[in-house]
Design a protein that fits this description.
55% of the residues lie in helices and 6% in strands. It has 13 helices and five strands. It starts with a strand and ends in a 6-residue tail after the last helix. It binds tryptophanyl-5'AMP.
Length: 339
C-alpha cells in the first residue's frame, strides 16, 4: 500500500481541503503503517508557480501548510512529509513523461479550461502541463491510493492514462513499470461547496472570505460564517430526495455528515423538520469542536520555523531515496544513456 497525495501551499487551507483530502491523509497514513506500506504527503510548491505568485508569500505559505498538516494529524514520524522543490525527481519525471502525455489529453482537462478561460494564449506553459507534473508526483512512488477531493479525479485519470501508455509503449507486457493509481474520494465530502453559493466549490481563490471556513478561523469567526451562510427559508427535509433542488442546504447537511462521521440520510433522519435557525448553530458547534484543537496546535507549531524546515528536510531526504528506483527504470526504458 503506497499512499501519495499533495496540496498546493497557496492561500489558507479550508474546510474543503480538510474534509475532502486531509482527513483521509490521516486515515490512510494509519492504514498504510498498519499494512507495512508507506504514506507520502507533499506540498505542491512546484505546481504553485503555474500561476502568478509572490515568492515571499509562497515561502511563508509552505511553512504554514506544514504546520497545518501536522496540526491536523499528519505525523512526520509515520508519513514522509516534504515539498516538491526539494525532490528534483518530480520535475525530472515530469519531463520524461512529457514524451508520453498527449496535447489532446491536456486540452480536455476541465481545470485547465476553467483557469485559462478565454485567455489560453496568455497562460503559463506550466498551467497547461500541470497535470503531467501531478502524474509524475504519484507515479514516481508507485502510488496505489491517492486521497483527493472530487475535483482532482480527472487529473488522476490522466495519470493512469499516462502510466498505461508508457507501460504499453516501453515495457514488456508482463513487466509494466508503473502502478496504476486509484483515487480515494470521501463519499460525504467529495466536493464541499462555497457558503455563499451552493453551486461553486469552496476554494482558496474565492475573493470572499465568507465563502469558506479556514482551518485557522477562531470560534467566533466560524460561528459568524455559518450563521451568514446562504440558505433557503424551508426547513430541512427528512429524506435526501428533498435536497435535490437545494444546493446550499445539501452542502450544509453534507458538511455536518462528514464532520460527525454519519451519512446525509442519518443527519436528515435526526434533523429533518428543523429550520436553519436551529441547524446552523448545531453545525457551527460541531465545526468549532473539530477545528479548535487543530487551530490551537497550528498556533503552537507555526512560530518554530526551524522545526518546520527540519520536518521538510527529513521528509525530502526520504522521498529522494524512495524515488530512485522508478526514475532509474524510466531513463532505462526510454533508452537514455546516463553513464
Ligand atoms: P489543492 O491544493 O487545490 O487541494 C488539496 C486537496 O483538497 C481537495 N479539495 C477539496 N475537496 C473537497 N471539496 C473542496 N471544495 C475542495 N477543494 C480542494 C483537493 O481535491 C485536493 O485533494 N493539484 C492538486 C495538488 C496536487 C496533487 C498531486 C494531489 C499536486 N500533485 C498529486 C494529488 C496527487 C491541487 O491543486 O490540490
Amino acid at each position: 500500500m503506497r499512499v501519495v497525495s499533495g496540496i498546493q501551499p497557496t492561500g489558507k487551507p479550508h474546510l474543503g481541503n480538510y474534509l475532502g483530502a486531509i482527513v483521509n491523509y490521516v486515515k490512510l497514513q494509519d492504514e498504510a503503517n498498519a499494512a507495512g506500506g508507506e504514506c507520502f504527503i507533499f506540498l505542491a510548491d512546484l505546481h504553485a508557480i503555474s500561476q502568478p505568485h509572490d515568492p515571499a508569500e509562497l515561502t511563508r505559505n509552505t511553512r504554514e501548510m506544514v504546520a497545518t498538516l501536522v496540526a491536523c494529524g499528519v505525523d512526520p514520524a509515520r508519513t514522509i512529509l516534504f515539498n516538491q522543490a526539494q525532490v528534483p525527481a518530480h520535475a525530472e519525471l515530469q519531463w520524461l513523461l512529457n514524451g508520453t502525455a498527449r496535447m489532446g489529453w491536456l486540452n480536455r482537462m476541465t481545470q485547465w479550461k476553467d483557469k485559462a478561460g478565454k485567455n489560453r494564449e496568455g497562460q503559463s506553459v506550466a498551467l497547461f502541463t500541470y497535470p503531467v507534473l501531478q502524474a509524475a508526483d504519484v507515479l514516481l512512488y508507485q502510488a496505489t491510493h491517492v486521497p483527493v477531493g472530487e475535483d482532482q479525479k480527472q487529473h488522476l485519470e490522466l495519470a493512469r492514462d499516462i502510466a498505461q501508455k508508457f507501460n504499453n509503449d516501453f515495457c514488456a507486457e508482463d513487466a509494466p513499470l508503473f502502478t496504476l493509481p486509484e483515487p480515494y474520494i470521501p463519499p460525504a465530502a467529495a466536493r464541499i461547496m462555497s457558503l455563499r453559493d451552493g453551486t461553486a466549490k469552496m476554494s482558496k481563490s474565492d475573493p470572499s472570505d465568507m465563502s469558506r471556513i479556514s482551518l485557522t478561523d477562531d470560534a467566533d469567526t466560524i460561528m459568524k460564517k455559518v450563521k451568514k451562510a446562504k440558505t433557503d427559508p424551508e426547513p430541512l427535509p427528512s429524506e435526501e430526495e428533498g435536497l435535490e433542488e437545494r444546493a446550499e442546504a445539501r452542502n450544509l447537511v453534507g458538511i455536518y455528515a462528514a464532520l460527525s462521521g454519519k451519512t446525509s440520510a442519518q443527519v436528515l433522519a435526526e434533523h429533518g423538520g428543523q429550520g436553519f435557525g436551529a441547524f446552523k448553530p448545531a453545525l457551527g458547534e460541531l465545526l468549532v469542536e473539530t477545528l479548535a484543537p487543530i487551530n490551537a496546535r497550528f498556533v503552537e507549531l507555526k512560530g518554530d520555523e526551524e522545526a518546520l524546515d527540519a520536518i521538510l528536510a527529513r521528509g525530502a531526504a526520504q522521498a529522494r531515496e524512495r524515488g530512485i528506483p522508478t526514475l532509474d527504470a524510466v531513463y532505462k526504458a526510454l533508452g537514455l544513456v546516463r553513464g
